[in-house]
Design a protein that fits this description.
single chain, 479 residues, alpha/beta, Rossmann fold, six-stranded parallel β-sheet, 18 helices, binds uridine-5'-diphosphate, UDP-glycosyltransferase activity, glycosyltransferase, Glycosyltransferase, transferase, UDP_glucos_trans
Amino acid sequence: MSSQPHAAILCSPGLGHLIPTFELAKRLVTHRNFTVTIFAIPSPTSKIESELLKAAATPKFFDIIELPPPDISGCVGPDAAIVTLLTVMMREARPAFRSAILGMEYSLRPTVLIVDLFSIESLSIGDELGIPKYVYVACTAWFVALTVYVPVFDKEVEGEYVDQTEPLRIPGCKPVQPEDVVDPMLDRIDQQYLEYVRIGTNFPKSDGILMNTWEDLEHKTIDALRDEGLLGRVAKVPVYPIGPLTRQVQSAGSTSTGIRDKGLFNWLDKQPCESVIFVSLGSGGTVSLEQMTEMAWGLELSQQRFIWVVRPPARSADAAFFTSGNQDDDPSTYLPKGFLTRTHDVGLVVPLWVSQVDILSHPSIGGFWSHCGWNSSLESITNGVPMMVWPLYAEQRMNATMLTEELGVAVRSKVLPSKKVVGREEIKEMVRKIMVDKDGQAIRGRVKGLKLSAAKAWSVGGSSYNALSQISCGNERKC
Ligand code: UDP
């Protein structure tokens, strides 16, 4: 076994999984002097994912071993939901992962195993090797709390979660409103629900849970996860809040997933400070044609400058999850007639993909209209940018509630966009609230405060810095 600490990290498909995995790997290398090997299974259909993997090779912080995506067509139906697809794919990939690790020369084998949520069943490979093993959940502590507790809800709650009249109470945590539950809890008969409960049941088999959050951001939930009189008795293992782990700004002119479009940044350079709202629904979010029309009108009526990353409309909100950045398209075919011409002087419409961190860190950006995936939310907070949240799928409804109600750094629509088309007038009001209205100033002030809190967590001796130092390297004399 390796004499230097060596972490093997297993990562499931999806940009929102790969990106925070790379950031964790970098920190283990730079702060703990680990060597890291990431075992990734890229979505067979995502061009951006394969480009991201290529780009991660330089400068080389860690090794990447791409495992072949297993053929799961015989195990899942054609309409299988994302959590089903991901968990089944990672289950079927386990033999390949095991062979890849056991096939390593003994002296080069990992001393620590880290798996993500969807590959939690591979913790058993850590047992085989006799090394410490962790689960990395690149989400909030509140989401971890719900996932840890879902096996209890499964026994205690009758009927569908969304039909409950009372919020779902997790010991020591903010209750979850029935309409905010994560996608796999929307239908208890669907296979993805069973997979999700199984994930919750498997947490205690790990030696700890790494979370992309920090003490000051979610101290109440983190305390509950640690408290054996509360949620800690269910979680059973230590939690390590090691966030925020977010992508760094790309170097000028970088290509591939950077897509540091020169024209776009030249335009941004000319705009006044904090005057542009950035609109992007993550790596795979999509909306209906009707909603897209309202979004366009709302933006236009708000009279604010904008950059809008668009994707062709689709019926399901996660339609582009496995294909982000793939389709070539012409936005004029689905945006309202004349929109591009009328907004030519104030806005830019960019198809499919831009380098989001570069945009959010630009001083001209004053707001972020986001699907509030957790990576995007952290990128907004760490750049001090207030948000207009537009949750679509996965755990995004919980993120939206936390960002608006708990942290007060975002505005949201009265009714969830996943329930009903949000109209142009309401959109206009929300955009103006974070960009220009007086009562939006408090939101901007709070997010700037959180930016400082995030930086403090990762300063030397800060809470996340210390939490990462506490993770076993599997070879205590060398830690
Ligand atoms: N992203 C990007 N450009 C885009 C869309 C997304 O760079 O046009 C990045 C974004 O910065 C974030 C990740 O992709 O790091 C998306 O992760 P998130 O958790 O926000 O949402 P998901 O896409 O997984 O739903």
